[in-house]
User: What shape does this take?
Amino acid sequence: MCALRGPVCSFLTRLRRILRIVSERTIVSLIFLCGVSAVIFVFGIFFFVFREGAPFLRHGFDAKEFFLSPDWYPTSATNKRYGILAQLIGTGTVTLVAMLVAVPFSLGAGIFIAEFCGKKTREIMKILIELLAAIPSVVWGFIGLMVMNPLIIWLTGAPIGLNVLNAGVIVGLMSVPIIVTIAEDAIRAVPDTYIEAAEALGATRWQLVRKVILPAAKSGLLAAVLLGVGRAVGETMAVLMCTGHSINIPFDGKAPFFHVLDSVRTLTATIAAEMGEAPRLEVNADGTFPAEALHYQSLFVIGIVLFAVTFVINVTADLIVKGIRKRK
Amino acid sequence: MKNHGNTKNLFAATELINKKLRAQRIVKWIFGLMSVAILIPLVGLTTCLIIRAWPSLTWDFLTDVPKQGMRSGGIWSALVGTMYTVTFSLLVAVPVGVMAGIYLNEYARDNWFTRIVNLAVVNLAGVPSIVHALFGLGAFVVFAGLGKSILSASLTLAIMTLPVIIVSTKEALLAVPLTFRMACWNLGASRWQTIRTIVLPNSIGGILTGIILQVCRAAGETAPIMFTGAVFYKAVQRGDLFPYKPTEQFMALSYHLHTISTQVPGVPESMLYATAVVLLGFVLAFNTIAIVLRTRIRNRKKW
Assistant: This one.
């Protein structure tokens, strides 16, 4: 009986072991595939956005006109022009105002949370900041439209409250959480020995922050601000609803040069607002595209510009943060 | 006695010390006020929105469909649409994200390749939502031929929210001590067996937190679904739980808020506010659940 069962038994055991190894290998390769999916998706994003925008780059793309002309008339019947200077400046000014609002407050809050408050306060603050980060951008846009808009008209007497100031404040509030979080991390990453040395010399908390921690955490704070800029540049729904959405450069020769109460339009809002009306047209038999197709493609080219800008910002910030971790 | 007094004097605060302590107190107050200032909008705006939305916040508002060109009725069709996209994006993002987190924490070695993967995760999180929308349009709607549909929108949302799950899974796994794994390896278990029986059960709470946060992100995003499937209006029966097919276009709460507040004139103000409050309340409620869960896990930790 044993002689009969022996081989069958060992065969079954072996089969089971083989099955186990095979299934384990499958799982492990699946895990590897998912692990690298982020890389695939980032390349995928670039590939597909580029693929849709490529015909515009091939046919009559003039980088000088595209970046330096403020004339954006993609639907004009006779003279279509694609210049994104006004949108670039719009994005730039909104980001600038947003950072003027967000950076001082966020760094202040970051320092307070990291150095000046007790453990309980810190927990509560961090939770509230997380909730602030969770507010959807369309709700921020709605707040800009319904709350900030009348407020700005009432305070400044401007004819319309949808302008650089409104969008700047809203986007500033939106980028506060990320700046605070990264800044706090950077401050806490300062080696304890530095702090102990300063305390041993009799420094107060404020002297410690000013003379030791801020200089040591400088690059981390820079990374925090950079990530805030990245967030502000990429913001879509809030700026679509709050900037007033008019092609306009808020600068002129007269003082005060920069008109914060002017309406502007940003790169992101241009895509969001116009993609619905821009048809995707197929290529003609002779390899050219109908003139109307360029609008759709030009919006994808704006997408490439945005992708490139945020890519550079994120990689730079990440390198800075990594550098700090390594030193620690 | 006299001697004692002298010692005391020696340690008494001098003018210089008083000055620097005063400076410290002032600075502390300034920074504290700054911190409060950035949190005022959260509290103030939420209260303001709720007060103005109050007249419209009824059960009927939630379960009724929009009527008279959005000017009356409720938000049922948009609410269901959002649930659809969130569920579908979860189905895609959770397995991929959790496995990616497992790979990065359990399998990946510390080399240039892993650094590139990590950089890609950071970038995926940093790409503007509108670029994700363009990607969804180019890849799913046009290239894959899914058309403007719930599927396209959900896949776009899934890829966009993937970093949330990857990062929180990674952190949850990292919190499981190496000694647990070593004990398991010493019993002859393979890497995957260890992960399945020891690492995952001990980190499930943290992973769950990430999934809840993903739900928040996916529910609130507007830009990625604008060109990939969300529509202005779709006729739906009141209270119908399955009004959309996965290949159909749909209404979503976030997009609905955008359209009724910018493109439809004459919507009663309280309805606008109520829509915003429902969306905001949904997101904040889920976020609070995630935070509570995380705190409880941290307090209950056995090691």
Remarks:
- Chain A touches chain B through 83 residues (CB under 8 Å).
- The radius of gyration of chain A is 27 Å.
- The first strand of chain A starts at residue 72 and ends at 73.
